[in-house]
Amino acid sequence: MKIIRNRGENFQDVFPLANVPDEVLDSIYDHLSDFELFHSIGLLSQRFRLSVKRYLQTSSKIRWKAIAIRVDGVRQGLREAMRHEMSLMVNVCIALSAFEMVEDGGRQSVWEALAGNEHLRALRLLFVSGDEVTWIAHNLVHKLEVLELWYGTLGESGARALASQPSGRLQELVVGSCDVEGPVADVLFESSLCMEEDRQNRNLRLIEGLDALTLSLCPLRDDGMLALSTLRFPRLRKLVLERCEFGDQGLSELRVENVPNLAELALIKNRFSTRSATVLSEFCSMAQRLRTLQLSWNRLGDDGVSFLPSSKLVSLDLRHCSITEKGCRVLAESKTLECINLCGNRMVEGYSLASGEGLKSLTELRLDNCKVADKGAFAIANGQLSRLRYLSLRGSLISETGVSALAQGNLPSLRTIVLQGNLNTVNTECMLKDNLRSLKRVIVSSTR
To answer: What start-end ranges are recorded for coiled-coil regions in this protein (predicted)?
Structure first.
């Protein structure tokens, strides 16, 4: 039995469940349910009827329910238990490969249970096939609010089945590590013929009616972005394109008029360069409702952030984007930013941000693994960051001198400070809390 707790602590114990009396199994599962901490349990027993049923019952408080099958011996008992319990779940997560060892009809039993579940609202499927996506599109999608498809194959048939469904209850679609490229992308994002005439958005299809769309580890490339640009998303508020392998050309296909209500945009670890600055500048200046932008793990450089002064962004994530102090001077001109994440930009020292007149509204600043050192700590302590509530400086070369400067600084609103990986002493926490009266939490050790 493997228990993974929410706090990241891993515990692994193996019990010979096949030889354990029923009353002992009941006691084990009752004990586990009291913790309300575990995420998933891999059941190793050959007597699955009781154990699976008890697992499903005790995991009723978990958002995603996962079942891992490890041995042959799963037969009618598993299907009966799952049919009963799965018919009551609101949120379900299934690794379909787990049912490969089940006798013929095992997967069909899962589909029947889900189809009969009137409470089902969110479904996450791992290792899904094109035929199964087609079945889901025709039989389940109408009742779902959230659908996640991971590590599978949509194929043109599955993509067409999803794309052809009318907009209904589904608000969020997540597709990860699937074949959304080439013909599949063309089919999935095929433009609706009636969109130009449907000004009131009454005949939207499933993709067009989403509030949130995430494509992660899907090789869209520039051609896929071109296909995506043919669709209009009148309701979309959140768009995440993570590691989709498109570059400056693909980014230029993103049209503001197609996402008029977009509030959050994440373009993580793609293939942008400094040449994307012009496109980003135009997009951000025209996207009136855009407030959160994530561009982490793109080689934007200092020139790539020149779009900021014309934007109304509140939160900006530029982790590992090759930003230096020159780029920080541009950031410091923004009067709307409240949260900035510059972790992993090795040449950022922090003093340009701290001394900038524009960042007086900043409440959260993350400079982990930057070149802050004592000089930067002194600048932050004596800068214009009087509203700062959260400050993270992990691994930023700060000694006790820098900590002392922070403790004596102009940070009256600071509630949390993170100093892991620096030259901390036993007096660091006391020094900070004694001087910064609003400070509630000091994190100086990886064990805390």
So the answer is: none
Q: What is the pTM of this model?
A: 0.80
Let me know whether 442 and 316 are in one domain.
Answer: yes
Residue 13 lies in a domain: yes
Instruction: Report residue 217 CA to chain centroid gap.
Output: 13
Helices assigned H by DSSP within 151-205: 155-164, 182-188
Provide mean pLDDT across the span 439-443: 94
Cα torsion 159, 162, 166, 167: sign: negative
Give, as one character, the DSSP assignment of residue 66. Answer: -
pLDDT in tens, 330-354: 999 888 999 999 999 999 999 899 9
Task: Please count the other Cβ atoms lying within 10 Å of the Cβ belonging to residue 358.
Answer: 18
What tokens does 197 get? Answer: 């005439």
Six token digits for residue 150: 């991971």
Mean pLDDT of all residues in 249-264? 95
Cβ contact 312:291 at 8 Å: yes
CA distance 443 to 239: 33
Report d(CA 46, CA 40) in Å as an integer. 18
Q: Collapse the DSSP code of 336 into the 3-class scheme (helix H, G, I; strand E, B; otherwise coil) and give the result.
A: coil
C-alpha span between 37 and 65 (Å, rounded): 13
d(CA 330, CA 324): 10
* 354 and 243 share one domain: no
Phi, psi (degrees; rounded to nearest 5) at 201? 55, 40
Q: Which of 131, 22, 125 is nearest to 77 (CA)?
A: 22
In CATH, what number is assigned to the domain containing residue 159? Answer: 3.80.10.10
Same domain assignment for residues 420 and 312: yes
* Interatomic CA distance for residues 292 and 312, integer angstroms: 9
Q: Is residue 284 part of a domain?
A: no
Sort 212 into a burial class: Cβ within 10 Å, 0-12 / 13-18 / 19+: middle
Residues facing 428 on adjacent strands: none
- Of the residues 120, 152, 178, which one is the last residue of a structural domain? 120
Q: Domain containing 156: what range?
A: 122-195+204-271
- The three-state secondary structure class of 421 is coil
Do 312 and 446 lie in one domain? The reply is yes
Q: Render pLDDT for 361-373 as a digit per residue (tens, 0 to 9).
A: 999 999 999 999 9
